[in-house]
Design goal:
about 425 residues; alpha+beta; four-stranded mixed sheet; four-stranded antiparallel sheet; 12 strands; about 45% helix; globular
Length: about 425
């Protein structure tokens, strides 16, 4: 077995590093209010219900334009979308690498924008969408025709088969009623990908349909924005009251919307895990660096076993998790990711937990300054803490592993 990353991936990482230094860092230095201790206030429009300020969105858009011009933004997308069809392993390696650089415009945490774009819904549009629906692909990439994602509800999150939003056929149209929570980026979207039960019983995977609903459709109402641990927030509460859409609004097939949702989730879970591992690496190494120079009681903190041992434990966990993420991503390139869902879940919940523990330990090692916003650790913690809930909670990820480990429903634990 060869555990080295392939040459084409390491070359790409070097290419990205050079691009960041030449194109992104100068832009970042000219806008430091979005990255230093002022970041939360500079980014957040408190008078617009806590949403991102237009100036912050404009800066991200400029970063993405530069990355697209350089051939990086679409790197992971299918060739039909102007991408290079990069492997899951390549994207995981890039996510880990960029996150390990710490906070910066190259890989922002607030809405997961990056010089290598994270567009988990685009592969589903490319595979399942009609020609009209595929116009959203370029729109999502450029921001000119955005499509938001509406799966979660006030009463249902990880238990997506129990959705209460309904779609009822009326001739060649559908009437949708329900309410969606954490409807990310809907306030700036041109359409909303709404999941609703159209047949079957609560708890059944079959019978949920995905509808592309234009946000200006009568009855589609964005009620308010949820303020979160990490601001700004772009996660709205949306109601659908007698929203009428034609048959052509269905993405994929009637009753098979969860196939689309699963595709979205699997695209995101392993990428989140890789980003969390990279951010953990950053936090651990920054704590080590500080401990070597901070003198207390006449010697560097690094001499104290009470400082050493927790960081050693975290570093050991990082090495194990990182290698498992890369192995899982490599295997995803060789078989249907749904067949190794347990491996993807292990990556996700272990890496996200590790990142939170590493950020917390970095705060502790840095003392009072670690707790301040002069350091990035509080921001990293607040962002990555949400990953232990989104895309399936930690408990749901562990339940998925248990299904395979205990051979429930005919599933067997993956062995790699």
């Amino acid at each position: 077995m060869d555990f080295e990353l392939p040459r084409e991936i390491t070359d790409k990482l070097a290419e990205l590093d050079a691009f960041i230094e030449a194109e992104i860092k100068p832009l970042e230095r000219d806008n430091m209010q979005f990255f230093d201790h002022r970041r939360e206030n500079a980014r957040t429009d408190w008078d617009d219900d806590g949403r991102p300020r237009p100036q912050w969105r404009a800066l991200i858009s400029e970063m993405e334009r530069r990355a697209d011009r350089a051939g990086h933004l679409r790197y992971g997308l299918p060739r039909s979308c102007g991408g290079q069809a990069a492997s899951n392993l390549a994207i995981a390696a890039i996510r880990e690498h960029l996150a390990a650089k710490g906070l910066g415009l190259h890989n922002d945490l607030q809405d997961e924008s990056s010089i290598v774009g994270n567009f988990p819904i685009i592969p589903a549009l490319a595979d399942y969408g009609t020609e009209e629906q595929k116009t959203y692909i370029e729109g999502i990439i450029t921001g000119k025709k955005h499509l938001s994602f509406a799966l979660t509800e006030p009463g249902h999150g990880s238990d997506a088969t129990w959705l209460e939003t309904t779609g009822v056929r009326d001739g060649d149209h559908w009437v949708i009623n329900g309410r969606k929570r954490w409807n990310s980026q809907v306030a700036r979207a041109h359409a909303n990908l709404v999941f609703a039960r159209t047949s079957g019983k609560p708890g059944e995977a079959k019978g949920i349909t995905a509808f592309i609903v234009p946000t200006d459709t009568p009855g589609h109402n964005v009620l308010y924005n949820h303020w979160t641990f990490n601001m700004p927030s772009d996660h709205a509460e949306t109601e659908l009251v007698n929203v009428r859409v034609p048959d052509s609004a269905i993405l994929h097939r009637e009753g098979e919307g969860l196939v689309v949702a699963q595709r979205f989730v699997h695209e995101n879970r392993v990428r989140q895990a890789a980003a969390s591992a990279g951010a953990a690496r950053y936090c651990i190494l920054k704590a080590v660096e500080y401990a070597k120079t901070r003198v207390a009681f006449g010697e560097p903190l690094a001499k104290k076993q009470a400082v050493q041992f927790p960081l050693v434990e975290l570093w050991s966990e990082y090495e194990l998790v990182r290698n498992f993420i890369f192995r899982t991503a490599w295997q995803m390139d060789r078989q249907n990711p749904l067949e190794i869902s347990d491996m993807v879940s292990i990556c996700n919940y272990r890496a996200n937990r590790l990142c939170c523990e590493a950020a917390d330990r970095a705060m502790q090692v840095h003392g009072g300054m670690g707790y301040s916003r002069a350091m990035p650790f509080e921001h990293i913690y607040r962002h990555h803490r949400r990953y232990r809930i989104t895309e399936g909670t930690e408990e749901v990820q562990m339940r998925r592993v248990a299904q395979y480990l205990f051979n429930f429903s005919g599933k067997r634990a993956s062995r790699g």
